DNA sequence: CTAACATGTGAACACCTATTCACTTGTTAG
DNA sequence: CTAACAAGTGAATAGGTGTTCACATGTTAG
């Protein structure tokens, strides 16, 4: 049940939507998401792979997990993070296509 | 040619990707985009519809147009803005689905 | 030309946030 | 138990940014 019609999203939904985009809007955080979207990966592996401090990665991961963009799973000392669901990778792909096609004329 | 594999996007692409998400990450700007995505709409109509100042709408519209999220078309005194391409609405839809489904287990 | 309207723009301010540092919590091994 | 490693957290700071205000630009009508 949407509020009125397709894109007339109600205010709380807009706030939530904006929050999700906002989280993906930081380059460092986006890199972390991209590192998680392929396969589950530990915090320390993200940090070393992206050349970031573990502290910084944890801070971002907390926000991403709170917004349910990523999910966590403990295995011994390490905690593995992965993309929460398929919508995330879908959004990422659509945006990459948008970048790839500067000015196309095959809409409709 | 991507840099390595699917989600190992090269750095300039990440910056561009993050920039797009960042623009959608502000609630006011997101509302403006949503107002444009349905049909072309004039700046003053966006402003009155969303109860914002024309100045503020113009500021946001400039950023959105620079990132090619929206495109502009002049008609007399007014300038009509609309979504740049189908990828934008696609991203919006995917994110809305992500919000709609809190915790689904039907992936793969 | 001038007047009125629509849009664009620059500067300033208040607010937010990404990052770092120091530290704590939790887990495994001995 | 302690030691070592992985992850999480709180505070503080530097930089970024959304908003407003005043003004400039552009367009149409007379």
UniProtKB/TrEMBL annotation, chains A, B:
Keyword Protein transport appears in the UniProt entry: no
Domain HTH arsR-type: 9-103
GO MF assignments: DNA binding; DNA-binding transcription factor activity
Stored SMART domains: HTH_ARSR (SM00418)
UniProt keyword terms in alphabetical order: DNA-binding, Transcription, Transcription regulation
SUPFAM superfamilies: Winged helix' DNA-binding domain (SSF46785)
Pfam hit, one: HTH_5
KW RNA-binding (keyword) present: no
CDD domains in alphabetical order: HTH_ARSR
Protein name per the record: Metalloregulator ArsR/SmtB family transcription factor
Biological source species: Duganella vulcania
């Amino acid at each position: 049940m949407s509020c009125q019609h397709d894109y007339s999203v109600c205010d709380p939904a807009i706030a939530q939507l904006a929050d999700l985009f906002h989280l993906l809007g930081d380059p460092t955080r986006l890199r972390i998401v991209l590192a998680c979207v392929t396969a589950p990966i530990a915090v320390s592996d993200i940090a070393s792979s992206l050349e970031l401090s573990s502290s910084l990665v944890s801070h971002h991961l907390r926000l991403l997990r709170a917004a349910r963009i990523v999910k966590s799973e403990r295995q011994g000392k390490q905690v593995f993070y992965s993309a929460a669901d398929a919508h995330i990778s879908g959004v990422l792909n659509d945006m990459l296509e948008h970048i790839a096609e500067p000015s196309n004329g095959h809409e409709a």
